[in-house]
Amino acid sequence: MKKLQKFLDIAAILLIVAGLYMAFMFAPMERVMGAVQKIFYFHVASAWIAFFAFFVTFVFSILFLVKQNFLFDDIAESSAEIGIMFCTIVLITGPIWARPIWGVWWTWDPRLTTTTILWFIYAGYIMLRKFIEEADKRAKFAAAIGIIGFIDVPIVFFSIRWWRTIHPNVVQKGGGGLHPDMLKAMLFAILAFSVLYAAMMLKRVRIASLARRIDALGENNG
Amino acid sequence: MKYLNTISAIVRKDVLHELKSREIVVSMLLFSVLTVVVFSFIFEPGSQFKNEVVGGILWMSFVFAGILGLNKSMMSEVTGGNFSALLLAPVDRSAIFFGKAVSNFIFIAMVEIFTIPLFMVLYNVNIFAYGAMPVVIFFLGTYGFAILGTLFSIISVNTRTREVMLPLLLLPIIVPIILSSVQALNIYILGHDPADASKWLQLLAAFDAIFTVVVFAVFDFIVED
Amino acid sequence: MANFGYLFAGYTVIFVLLGAYFFSLGSRLNNLETRVESLENK
Asked: Which of A4, A36, C6, C32 has the most CB atoms around it within 10 Å of its CB?
């Protein structure tokens, strides 16, 4: 376990350094947007990981309700917390990119708005967990939010898309308009952040299970 | 059949209780009318722009009043230990849930029935100028709100902070309901082509159907054994 | 080329947030491990 952790930590750091090289040196400079376009690689990678992390929370919330194994609850909780970290990065880097390109910090585009709503759903999820003391109730109620929240996301997205849209649509059209080297740099950034996600998950899940262990030990002693 | 009997028994209990105390509907009604009045200060009286925002004002008044009522309704269940007693009854647990959801739906619908005419007088708009379709919007929107609101109010009253969690959990999840109800209502208020409203109505119906199934599947698992 | 400032700000945000979270995880883990050990020895 310890060895795997060390390996993942080092791999994540090395891959991120390599990812930075890919983004700044390997990928060509965007002609219209200029240097600020280089935010794109890690912005997209963060968004990818955030969605993936919330998907993991969804899956393990279901598993917890079915199997009642608290390890699944720890995984769901950990993934939500890491997901909200990456979601925060998306929400901050997005406006930083948008300001010089669109001339505004914020627009009510479907993906921006959906990501914001997503952030609020999982912020609620994490707050809820802090406000319930009984481990059993906490896990069950949080699982309900983890499931309903994730199912809600596509509905939110479609409802807002019917409402308005301007976000550059890179992923949908098979990389439409994206230089192949840029695509490679983007995929590499996603790979680097995936390994970072795995390293963080391993730590966060161990924190959660140790905290559970401390609770159990405390009950036996007191 | 037994399932429906359970639902109707719970609804009857809630309605009788409410007819005696009148706590929930009256406080919700006052609050929703008050919201409608207070929001009038955001634009010039009689301005042309008003018609584009009044639909949103009406829905937000229902949402805020609904959150108030849901908390009140679930708190009175939990403080007396009534809810735990209900769960001990030898009936399907999701029937208990849908009973509560239907009573909450009825309470919110009562509020809407009184607020809408007042709203139409105060803002000088006629929602029903193009037929009775807006009734369907109110029905679908309120149903979705009631079903998720009831589940989240059960969750929220079980936390340390009690009613604080409900709006924090509920509002982001019901964004599709708010958005599509307001957009659909605006089509009727502004006199646009009613055919445009149908996609919003479909979205509302899909939302309601999806979450009825999800809550049905999840509820049994999350209440205490 | 005037938008280097934005680029710099963007990457600063990403790595300050990730770095802070990453190291806070490490220190939380160490704290808990020592606490569990001391509780188990009791």
From this structure: A36
Range of the domain at B197: 2-222
The residue whose two tokens read 């909450």 is B104
Looking at the partner chain, which of B161, B169, B223 has a beta carbon nearest the beta carbon of A145?
B169
Among A6, A1, A45, residue whose Cα is nearest residue A22: A45
Residues in chain B: 225
Residue whose structure tokens are 């479907």? A110
Amino acid at B126: N
Q: Which residue has the tokens 């401390």?
A: A214
Provide the H-helix boundaries in chain A.
2-21, 39-67, 70-102, 110-130, 135-163, 180-221
At C17, the pLDDT band (50, 70, 90 cuts) reads very high
**A100 has a chain B CB within 8 A of its CB:** no
- Model confidence at A169, pLDDT cuts 50, 70, 90, reads low
Minimum CA–CA partner of A81 in chain C: C21
pLDDT band at B190 (very low <50, low <70, confident <90, very high): confident
Q: Please calculate the CA angle A86-A166-B144 and round it to the nearest 5 degrees.
A: 70
Q: Is the pLDDT of residue A174 over 50?
A: no
Residues A78-87: tens digit of each pLDDT: 999 999 999 9
Q: What is the pLDDT of residue A167?
A: 55
Distance CA C30, CA A153 (A): 36
What is the rounded average pLDDT for all residues in chain A?
88
Interacting residues of B94 by C-beta distance below 8 A, sequence separation 6+: B215, B216, B219, B220
* Confidence at A172, pLDDT banded by 50, 70, 90: very low
Judged by a CB distance cut-off of 8 A, whether residue C20 touches chain A is no
What is the pTM (predicted TM-score) of this model?
A: 0.91
Q: How far apart are CA B54 and CA B121, in angstroms?
A: 12
Q: Pick the residue of A68, A116, A140, A151 with the most B CBs within 10 A to test the interface with B by mutation.
A: A140
User: CA-to-CA distance for B90 and A172, rounded, in angstroms?
Assistant: 51
One-letter amino acid of B210: I
The H-assigned helical ranges of chain B are 2-21, 23-39, 51-79, 82-88, 93-123, 133-157, 165-173, 175-190, 197-222
> Closest Cα partner for A147 from B169, C33, C17, B23?
B169
Give the number of domains in chain B.
1
A35: tokens are: 């240097």
CA distances from B78 to A178, B7, B82, B83 (A): 57, 18, 6, 6
Q: Is the dihedral of CA B33, B28, B136, B141 positive or negative?
A: positive
Q: C2 CB near a chain A CB, below 8 Å?
A: yes
